[in-house]
Here is the input.
Amino acid sequence: MITDVLDAWTPRDLAQAGLLDEYRAFVAASGPAAVDRSLAPEHLTASCFVLTPDLSRVLLCFHRKGQFWVQLGGHLEPGDQSLAAAALREAREEGGIADLRPESALPADVHRHELAAAFGRCRVHWDVGFVAYAPAGSAPLVSDESERVEWFDVDALPAGTPDDVAVRLRTVLDEVRSR
Here is the structure.
């Protein structure tokens, strides 16, 4: 099942572990609607924190609908074999870097957030975050879903980045460094 990774991961952060328990309960209660946005306004999404191998820079996109800087990611599609595969596919599509290297098949964070009316039928994303590394010197390409895609120092995110993205990034970096 596409959500098996939720049972395989043990986050190092206690708050993440508590939220992960809520994810497991949500998936159990929602059945197929947990992974199919056409079935419910609340559903899982998969995102990818694209980092340089030295963990000093992160690739962000300026989201067209949300009008803010955020990590790459989005909805699961029928052909996705796992949450990690969905996150990597989204990162490649939105960032334009084909040769990304996944850090792990396990998540690096979970984050649930409500969405504004600009996101249409979607009301809550139960996001599962993964990490991938880009080769040195990789140049991103803008996709249809983003206005801009750029590299930023992990300690100097741009104006227009929601506070929770910076918090997530710190959690992700702590998780990756502990593996």
About this structure: The first strand starts at residue 42 and ends at 51.
